[in-house]
Write a structure and sequence with these properties.
This protein has 11 helices and 5 strands. The chain has 309 residues and is of the alpha/beta class. The protein folds into 2 domains: 121 residues, Glutaredoxin (3-Layer(aba) Sandwich); 155 residues, Serine Threonine Protein Phosphatase 5, Tetratricopeptide repeat. This is Thioredoxin domain-containing protein.
Length: 309
């Protein structure tokens, strides 16, 4: 994944099996997986094991289909990895185990994660159906922050904002989300909702966004909220979409009207490159419809960049 506009490099899942070379590498990956509430599936194999070789492509394909899950491979006879096999009492090859962190994480990985893990399932033998089953049961998915707020009053304000947004009353929606943020300032979801409301408000050109100066102020607030979201929740794909929207909006013709002609193209290029990186992050951190939408937006950004070269 590429770097992000604020210098961070969110790491989603892996997308392909990792051949473990040492105990230290094993420990490092497990610590990261526990902290991110990502499931770890391990293939204990041996070079002389023919069934291991038969099922290896299936294991690799499952890794590709589940990029938010760590798929590891451990050679039980390796000089630097046999201690791992011994720790888990591996006696037959192949053996697959599923490890999860002991925390309050859930299917979307919204818990805190801990530094410890436990084996939640074990499968012996080259059993494609069994391997597919344990993967489907335990695989982790794209991260999404908790939508729970600090108080009932904050929840009520958020619900009001959602209702007003659906009615396309974007100014009042911003006010409702702002009230919710005052009551629950640590919710990235609220900042993302308000950022989108600013964006839609600008596009509507309604009261409060009916002059160039008013829209400029709203664009600044949109970008501030988007930056807040990605700073709070760098592993949330939707947050990076909000960032990309804000960066693209910041270079509309109206926003650049006071910029000197010789600087305008460079300003556009800089913001579009930031939007490109944000969308690459969003794609790597998303799945399903959100990923498809981010991919479509990325193609548009790339076309706009081509016109500047």
């Amino acid at each position: 994944m590429t770097g992000s506009p604020n210098g961070k490099s969110p790491i989603p899942g892996c997308g392909s099996p990792i051949e473990i070379e040492s105990v230290s590498e094993w420990n490092s990956i497990l610590r990261h997986a526990y902290a991110s509430n990502q499931t770890v599936i391990v293939d204990f194999h041996a070079e002389w094991c023919q069934p291991c070789k038969v099922i290896a492509p299936i294991y690799s394909n499952l890794a590709t289909q589940n990029p938010f899950t760590y798929f590891l491979r451990v050679d039980v006879d390796g000089n630097r990895t046999r201690a791992i096999a011994a720790k888990y009492s591996i006696s037959a090859m192949p053996t697959f185990i599923v490890i999860k962190g002991q925390g309050d994480g859930n299917r979307n990985g919204t818990g805190t994660g801990t530094g410890k893990g436990e084996v939640v399932e074990k499968l012996q033998g080259a059993d494609p159906q069994g391997l597919a089953r344990i993967t489907s049961t335990h695989a982790s998915h794209a991260y999404a922050p908790s939508s729970n707020l600090d108080s009932k009053e904050a929840e009520k304000a958020k619900d009001q904002g959602n209702d007003l947004f659906r009615k396309r009353q974007y100014g009042p929606a911003v006010e409702a989300y702002s009230k919710a943020i005052e009551l629950s300032p640590n919710s990235a979801v609220l900042y993302a909702n308000r950022a989108l409301s600013y964006y839609k408000w600008v596009q509507s050109a309604r009261e409060g966004a009916d002059t160039p100066d008013a829209r400029m102020k709203l664009r600044v607030k949109q970008l501030e909220d988007a930056m807040k979201v990605t700073d709070m929740e760098e592993k949330w794909g939707k947050g990076w979409v909000r960032m990309a929207e804000a960066l693209v909006e910041s270079i509309c013709d109206e926003s650049l009207v006071k910029v000197k002609d010789e600087l305008r193209a460079e300003g556009k290029r800089h913001s579009l490159l930031g939007a490109e990186e944000a969308l690459q992050n969003a794609i790597g951190l998303s799945e399903g419809k959100p990923k498809i939408e981010a991919q479509a937006m990325l193609e548009d950004v790339k076309k706009r960049l081509e016109t500047l070269t």
